[in-house]
Amino acid sequence: MRTTSGWMSTDGTTALRRVRIERRDLRDDDLAVRVDYCGVCHSDLHRIGGLLGEGPLVPGHEFTGTVTAVGAAVTAFSVGDRVAVGTIVDSCGVCEMCRIGQENFCYEGPVSTYGGTGRADGAKTQGGYSREYVLRDRFAYHLPDGLDQAGAAPLMCAGISVWEPLRAAGIASGSRVAVAGLGGLGHLAVKLAAALGAEVTVLSRTPGKAGDAHKLGAADTLNTGDDQQVQRARGRFDLILDTIPVAHDLSPLLHMAALDGTLSLLGYPLEQPVQILHLARGRKKLTSSGTGGRRHTAELLDFCAGHGITADVEVLPSARVQEALDRLGRGDVRYRFVLDLSDLDRPDLDRPAHS
User: Fold this and answer.
1) Greatest CA separation found in the chain?
2) Predicted confidence (pLDDT) at residue 136 exceeds the cutoff of 80
3) What is the pLDDT of residue 352?
4) Which of 9, 45, 159, 235 is the most exposed place for a label (fewest CB within 10 A)?
5) What's the domain range around 173?
């Protein structure tokens, strides 16, 4: 077995500790990747808090790094290549979903980058808050030369999570798209929808976000706390990307969806009430999405390289992971924390993450 250092949650709090973790020896189709930058996703915070009833885990499922070793059968990657890795590191490869490039919906269950169960050995996966990761080569992606490593890391979760519903809805020039919530997912949704040619409106209860929204590419902002503005926006949007990470009332958003329009819930994956009558009035669609498969992920990276799109990030040394998680919980970030894992090369393994 290979060993590396990582930040592990052991008690359901954000006080992660630096520990030694094991990585498997390379199989024929494996890559070893030195993790350079890993984004901090709101779902990391949920899962550290026990959303899925998990025990100790190393979070992190959007990272970039450098290939340090390849298995005997690997031909698409070489040592020294820059790569990006997202939320999925394996799937069955043969079901209908896998055959069409939607491994995120694998009928046998995709193997998540952390907290998953390895298909070959049943081992629990540990994530990218670590200095090395080992995975199957088909779930790594070449990072285009034009993309900054730190800014590109959140594309692998936040970016692909909004890209798939944009593509599914056929968003293009002339489309009208609204983005609810201007956080890690939301700010990338604005950038990507605008680059696709859509007229983008940011929905927010915070009027002070108007300046940032316009800088990101939005044509307009709408204060959802103003009933008159909401009423005037009735039937306005072809697609509403809801990236709000807490439970909330969906009725005002459905009110703003156009005839045959779509509300896509991306920020809060748990139970939320909805009145079916609000869907019936206008044949509106309520959908969701779970990150992305290989086909759309590769497409996203090419699109971002061609349009110069990366996340707006605040980079912190990984030893400040508790600060990142605590501030994320307060909404104190514009717009994505990214951990620099190079400090894990230091030998002081027992130092708490918040020191």
Assistant:
1) 64
2) yes
3) 42
4) 235
5) 158-288
